[in-house]
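Hi U.,

Before I forget, here's the chain from the pilot set. I'm dumping it here mostly so it's searchable later in email.
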Amino acid sequence: MGVYERQQKEKKILEAAIHLFSEKGFHATKVDEVAKKARISKGLVYFYYKSKEDLYMAITKKGVDELKEIFNKAFGKPKEKTGLEVMTDLAESYLSFARDKKVFHDAILHFLGLLDQYQVDKEKLNPLILNSQYFTKLVQSHHDLAKLGIKAISTGIKDGSIRPDLHAESTFYTLWSMMIGYCRISGSVSLEPGEIKINTESWKNGFIKLFFEILKGSSTPSVSQPVQGKLF
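Structure:
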């Protein structure tokens, strides 16, 4: 089998798996269904991917690669954008990616959770994941996304578009965690009880305002209110 034919088979399997995982979820999808959707034999699926977990790691790797490409495009041509403009595009692109490529975003977040266990006690990880070549590649390259974000913030600090008192590394990880949290709970905001004064639009506007106040600083200095009375 030639290289091109092999690549086409792998592509068909991935496309089928992405469709089914999006529709039914990872756990409810069977390899038999992936094979049927791809119109190939189950044995051939296992020829290219050692397990369903290996296939999911391949999808995760594809998602990370797509998001990395999106981050790289946000930079544009050298010296074309300020660091703040790059961060604006990164944030907008990330939120769009999380909405439009949900199966990839969910896979990436699942992988980040696996990394926690990998560092604490990797022997407790599912061996089908540990033995996946795609998991190994992800462990080796997962910092690439953060490096691009850190680069954008560092550029902004140097060109003056981002406040100079920030630490680029901790700031990016803080903002990234904010974006992940926003994506996770934004769907529940519209379901909050009436006494909670929030809706999807006000939550989005408030999130964006706070996001950029972290980078630029607030034009209105905050004043701490005096504490009245005793705590106990």
